[in-house]
Amino acid sequence: MPSDDGRTSIPRTPAPRAASGRAGPNRMSQAARSWAERGLVPTVIPYGYRQVPGERGRLAIHEPEAAVVRLAFRLRADGASCAAIAETLNARALPKANGKPWLPSRVRHMLENSLYRGTIIFGRTRHLIGEDGRRTVVPLPRAEWLVSDVPDLRIVDPRVGARADAVGDPGRPAAPGPGAP
Predict the structure, then answer these.
(1) Which CATH number among 3.20.190.10, 3.90.1150.10, 3.90.1750.20, 1.20.140.10 corresponds to the domain 44-166?
(2) Residue 149 phi/psi, 5° resolution?
(3) pLDDT in tens, 83-94
(4) How far apart are CA 69 and CA 117, in angstroms?
(5) What is the per-residue burial (b if ≥16 Cβ within 10 Å, else e) of 10-37?
(6) The predicted structure's pLDDT at residue 66
């Protein structure tokens, strides 16, 4: 059905359920949890890492990008805002993996990613699909999270990470840090 701007919209249909015999949200979550339990990364490969060739889910540190991650954490630990960090990375021509400029929101996402500290946290949220086909993200209690230490994937020194976590962003509530929902 055409919309006001001339584009065609497609009615949303509910995602397949596990009961249909197809891989529904629950089976996907179980598979991802299994990966995390084995120290594999069950999500998009974060900046600073590359997949180990031939080993699905296993990552290795990509040193040129890891240096950028360390710089961002050091700047944050020294009190820089996410906007100031993004400006610095862009001024030094340190592009993201996709070649686009850094935005404060991407910097914030990086600073909140527990993998840079050598920890995989899986199961902070659950995605539910309503009868209308809309996805809802529901935070889960900490007791249900799966936390796996992966020290070989630690990019940021723990002391620098702790100092970076202690810095608040002006005009924004303090980030909950890597262990919060």
Answers:
(1) 3.90.1750.20
(2) -80, 130
(3) 999 999 999 999
(4) 11
(5) eeeeeeeeeeeeeeebeeebeebeebbe
(6) 97
Q: What is the pTM of this model?
A: 0.70
Place of tokens 């995602």: 15
What are the residues facing 2 on neighbouring strands? 8
Is 108 in contact with 81 (CB distance < 8 Å)? no
Tell me which residue of 133, 128, 130 sits closest to 12, measured CA to CA.
133
Cα radius of gyration rounded to whole Å, the chain:
19
Helices (H), 80-157: 82-91, 104-111
Structure tokens at 69: 């991650």
Q: Which residues contact 71 (CB under 8 A, 6 or more apart)?
A: 88, 89, 94
Cβ-contact 89, 65 below 8 angstroms:
no
130 or 77, which is more confident: 77
- Report how far residue 69's alpha carbon sits from residue 156's, in angstroms, rounded to the nearest whole number: 8
